[in-house]
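Z., the sequence and structure:
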Amino acid sequence: MWPKTADEILAKAVRKPERSANRDNYKQPDQAVPQGGPRAADRDRDQQRPRLWDRQAAGWKPARPAEVGAQANRRLLDVQRISHDPILGETAFASLTTPHEVAGQRVSALRFADQRVETLLQALVVFRLQPGPFRADDLRQLLAPLLGLRPNELRQGRLSYELRRLRLHGLIERVPKSHRYRVTELGFRTALFFSRTYSRLIRPGFAQLIDARPTTDLRRPLEQFELAIGRWVVDAKLAS
């Protein structure tokens, strides 16, 4: 039915749909809407987030780029840092292989790869595996065959000399109130390292270097390195 008056026509033109009027209270199925509508929910969620000025008021400060870079460099250095100090190894090796004074007493060197020193260190490894300390006569019985001698050919003065320099170097220690000795941790590690390095690395490696056959595993890459150096010298016109 058509409206008859101007008021009815105007009222029908400005009337809103019922769904539009209830837009704030509209909700989808199985979805709860907080009191106040979706806009109120967004406002509450924003208030719960820690804002930048709130964190600054609590004492929080953003990290500067320089600090971030320094922390990254420290972490990288921690990863790349080696677990040992080569200077300490050089000092310890020099103190063992060169003569020096210990507590005012002069002690002779334990020279690396010396035959007598190698046999002495091998004896220390054996004594370390024994349950109790050892005596000078025990050292005589073990050291003489390694040197190609009979036990009675090894004099007491030489045994005293060997025991003295082992003790001053800290490789053995005397049991209090006795004439017995025991191998220290330093002595066992040094004896094992020196013995294995010489017998498993130095001696077989040097044998490959002087071998006339060019098929050894160590000599082949060394010859290739020498050829590469020779070609580089020729190309640089530095050959004499």
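The radius of gyration is 44 Å. DSSP finds eleven helices and four strands in the chain.

Let me know what you think.
H.
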